[in-house]
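input
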Amino acid sequence: MKIAQNTVVKMHYSVLDGDQNSIDNTFDEEPLEFIIGTGFLIKGLEDALIDKQAGDKISVTVEPENGYGIRNDNLTQAVPKSMFEGIDVEVGMQFRATTDEGEQAVIVIGVEDDEVIVDGNHPLAGITLHFDVEIVEVREATQDELAHGHVHSEGGCGHDH
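output
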């Protein structure tokens, strides 16, 4: 069976950044399993999987536009340290912030005397990603999986709707 919209894909992958630093790798773990078309994967990788089948091995380079987006410097700002009252703020911490566009994840990229520098970009924004993928299995998604928008393991999905 070929990968298409609403198929369940089970795959192993490794991903490197442009400097060949490993970002993630499932080859020594359980494979990733998801439904094509639910937005689970970045567009560039999902597009490259279409029409592939179990046993296929592919290498894919995904530019930022089809990955986690282009970095937006306007999403980096200094905020008063007083906004983090009672928290020992350190670089790398992640928080949810309320912005004009709604809730947004931010990561602390700097701590100064009375300010905290936060970045609302995805940590992989602006980075070209290099994937090596091995397709393990492809099957049709069940009606329940499609209704819920995610893959169910044996015994269901663990929620009641």
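quick obs: The chain has a mean pLDDT of 91.
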